[in-house]
Structures are given as structure tokens and as C-alpha cells.
Design brief:
By secondary structure, the protein is of the alpha/beta class. It is built from twelve helices and eleven strands. Helix content is 43%, strand content 15%. The chain is globular.
Length: 332
């Protein structure tokens, strides 16, 4: 059965984020993935720690963090601590870096650097020493009394990182849209990577990350997700889009403002045509979204993780509830 996840950007005070997490646990969501971008949202590790208090089942993750603004030692320690506190209900989602770096003029990691960071994190979670690349000095998590099993997911869109994810990750947070041909291309690329390490897709947990708006008015729903769609569309993707849409994507790329990252009212959202929304989001009426979920479920992903979008000042609760009802929410 398709599992449910939710991506939450900490755009609201911590108390509000905690209430969303409690709601998700009550509705049967399996994972909650927090956005991590220190200049535009509240601190993800603080929010996750607060939200974990009183929960019993839901798994906490990032969708995703990076190893530039967060040195591997400052990734390993919060995750080991959160894993200890929750009894292992954690999933570290990491990528090359996006708005957390771009807002400061920094460049994302190269894939080889990301792979090295992941290897270091796994060694640190095992209680081993790793070498700090600048100083050469060795360091470790001094307080660990035993190895910790913390799965590492890679957030991926482009073909090369999708293939690397298949080779080395425990799970993949796939951001390629909701159109079946994009999802199929992504899964094929992940599978090629998995074969390089004598694995298959069944050995990985595949999470489809999608901007989501569910409303009685399809136009309103589409308008709410255009800003996130703009960010998906300007990434390298595992399949081609129509040349006319490529021109629209080029215009978005030229005007994208990272300080308005995922803001439904960002100026660059106005550049996104409906055709791109339908390719890259889950947006529309309940019936329209239910039909798209049915298509996605047949493709072989393990989880659909929605990123609920509403107007500023509105609650995300309605979208979280609506998606759970569409999938067949199972309160526990």
C-alpha cells in the first residue's frame, strides 16, 4: 500500500509546526520531512526536536539538508541525538544543497563530495573516526555507546544524482514531477545505479516529493503550487519536456529568486504555465488528485510525500487531511 509522507517548510512558528506533526501522526502519515534552509525558514533541527516530543510512531527526516552549511560533524551529532531521543525514528535526507547555499552565493556540492560526506556520516554513526578534510585531524562522536542505524536518503532530480542514489543511498527523495513518464525515467535511472551495487529498486525506499494543493477550484489549486513547480522545472530532469515548455523554463530560470523559494506569491510563480503545473505537481480538485495518485501508485514508488501549499496565513491542515482521505488515511 502506498505510504504517506508530508514535507513541511518551517514557515510558521515552532508550536504550529508541532501541531502539524501531531496531526500527521494521528492521520496515519509515515514520515514528516522538514525543509532545511537556514536563511529563509526556521531552524529545522530545533523544530524537529520540539515536534518529536510526545510522538510515538512518525519518522522525522529532512528533505533535504546539505554538508556545506552543515559540517558533517554538525550533521552527525543532531541526527544521532534525535535518533536516540525517538528510538530510531529518523531518516536523514541530504542533497547537494539548494536555497541554503544559493541565498549566500555558494555553489552546491559536487557529487563526489556528497558521496564522501555520506560515507563520513555513516562512519560517524558507527562510532568510527573520520578525517576532517581541511585540517586532516580525526574526529568522532564521543558520546556514542553503540553504533546507530540512521538511514540516509538522497534528494535527487537530475540523472547523475538519481543514479548515484541508487548505488549508495538507503532511500531516494525523488523530485521530478508527477507525470508518469518522468517518474518512470527516474526509477529506471535509480535502478541502474542500484545494479552497480548488486541491488534492485526493492532494496531502496522511494519517496516521490510533490508540491500539492487540493481545492474545490482547480485554478486556485494550480496557482498555489506554481512557485514550487518553478523550482522543480528548472532542475535537470530525467526526461525531456516539450520545446515550447523549455522556453518557459528558461524564463523562470532567469528570474528565480531564492529568497522567495517556495513562496506561493513569489513573482517567478507567474511565469509557470498550467502545462508545467500538470507535469510537476499534484494540484486540483479531490477527484483530479485522486486520479493522479492512482496513476502514481501503479508506477512502483513506495511513498508520496506532499508539500502542502496554501495562501500566507492559512493553515495547511485542510490539505494534510484531504490527502489522507484520498489515499485512505488510517488513524492510529
Amino acid at each position: 500500500m502506498l505510504s504517506m509522507g508530508v514535507g513541511l517548510f518551517p514557515t510558521e512558528p515552532t508550536a504550529a509546526m508541532c501541531s502539524y506533526v501531531r496531526l500527521c501522526e494521528d492521520l496515519g502519515y509515515d514520515n514528516v520531512w522538514f525543509g532545511d534552509s537556514q536563511n529563509i525558514w526556521r531552524e529545522s533541527s530545533t523544530v524537529m526536536g520540539a515536534a518529536a516530543v510526545g510522538t510515538e510512531r512518525i519518522i522525522f527526516g529532512t528533505g533535504g539538508t546539505n554538508a556545506v552549511t552543515r559540517h558533517p560533524s554538525l550533521l552527525a551529532s543532531p541526527w544521532a541525538t534525535l535518533g536516540e531521543f525517538t528510538g530510531g525514528r529518523v531518516a536523514l535526507g541530504i542533497g547537494t544543497g539548494d536555497s541554503s547555499l544559493r541565498t549566500m552565493g555558494l555553489k552546491p556540492l559536487k557529487l563526489a563530495e556528497l558521496e564522501r560526506a555520506i560515507a563520513d556520516l555513516r562512519a560517524l554513526f558507527r562510532g568510527e573516526k573520520v578525517a576532517e578534510p581541511t585540517s586532516g585531524a580525526e574526529y568522532h562522536l564521543n558520546y556514542l555507546s553503540a553504533a546507530m542505524d540512521i538511514p540516509i536518503y538522497i534528494a535527487a532530480s537530475a540523472p547523475r544524482i538519481l543514479q548515484m542514489s541508487g548505488r549508495i543511498a538507503d532511500g531516494v527523495i525523488v523530485l521530478v514531477g508527477t507525470a508518469p513518464h518522468f517518474i518512470e525515467a527516474a526509477l529506471q535511472t535509480i535502478e541502474r545505479g542500484a545494479a552497480e551495487s548488486n541491488r534492485s529498486l526493492e532494496d531502496l525506499h522511494i519517496v516521490l516529493w510533490t508540491p500539492t494543493a487540493i481545492a474545490e477550484d482547480s485554478t486556485e489549486a494550480r496557482d498555489l503550487v506554481r512557485a514550487h513547480v518553478s523550482r522543480v522545472a528548472i532542475r535537470p530532469l530525467p526526461a525531456k519536456v516539450d520545446p515550447a515548455l523549455e522556453r518557459a523554463i528558461d524564463r523562470i530560470r532567469d528570474q528565480y529568486n531564492y529568497y522567495e523559494h517556495m513562496n506561493p506569491e513569489a513573482a517567478h510563480a507567474d511565469l509557470v504555465p498550467d502545462e508545467l503545473v500538470d507535469l510537476f505537481a499534484l494540484a486540483g480538485t479531490r477527484d483530479e488528485c485522486a486520479q493522479r495518485i492512482k496513476e502514481i501508485e501503479s508506477l512502483g514508488v513506495d511513498q508520496v510525500s506532499i508539500v502542502p501549499f496554501v495562501r500566507p496565513g492559512q493553515s495547511r491542515e485542510g490539505t494534510i487531511r484531504a490527502f489522507a482521505e484520498i489515499v485512505g488515511g488510517r488513524p492510529r
